[in-house]
Write a structure and sequence with these properties.
single chain; alpha+beta; three-stranded antiparallel β-sheet; 5 strands
């Protein structure tokens, strides 16, 4: 897996995970990449320093207001998915592949998959994204 820092034409920054650099190039050429903030498809790679083993990684401190805003936005995304997508449980990998291959109805789904299933879906170019964490559970972990 390779992680790229990405940004859209409007300056929204985010990251994307790809099986290889050619997977990024292929998805970009097919118009499959889009900004998670504004949905524009004008997305490009940004300069990014590689993660080096043994270096200290720190998480920037967020002001409480910024953290609260971020948690509320994540909660809204999660609620939207839960209210509008079909929950397929542990059949997620099989159903996502069937939809991608045109063997099942094209619709939004969510569910569970093992790390190996996720890696295989990504390697095969099946468009998937992780569901944001439940803000209530994340808040409990932070306290």
């Amino acid at each position: 897996m390779i992680k790229y820092a990405l940004a859209c034409e409007h300056g929204h920054g985010f990251e994307g995970w790809f099986g290889s650099s050619s997977d990024y190039d292929d998805q970009q050429a097919r118009g499959l990449l889009e900004c998670p903030v504004c949905a524009t498809k004008a997305v490009s790679k940004q300069i990014m320093a590689p993660a080096v083993a043994g270096t200290k990684r720190t998480t920037p401190d967020l002001k409480p207001e910024a953290r609260q805003m971020m948690m509320e936005a994540l909660g809204q995304v999660r609620r939207h998915v839960e209210e509008n997508f079909d929950y397929v449980g542990d059949s997620f990998a099989r159903e996502a592949r069937a939809i991608h291959e045109g063997k099942s109805e094209d619709r939004g789904i969510y569910g569970e998959a093992s790390p190996q299933e996720i890696r295989k879906l990504v390697d095969d170019g099946v468009p998937i994204a992780p569901l944001p964490p439940d803000p209530a559970k994340a808040a409990k972990k932070a306290n």
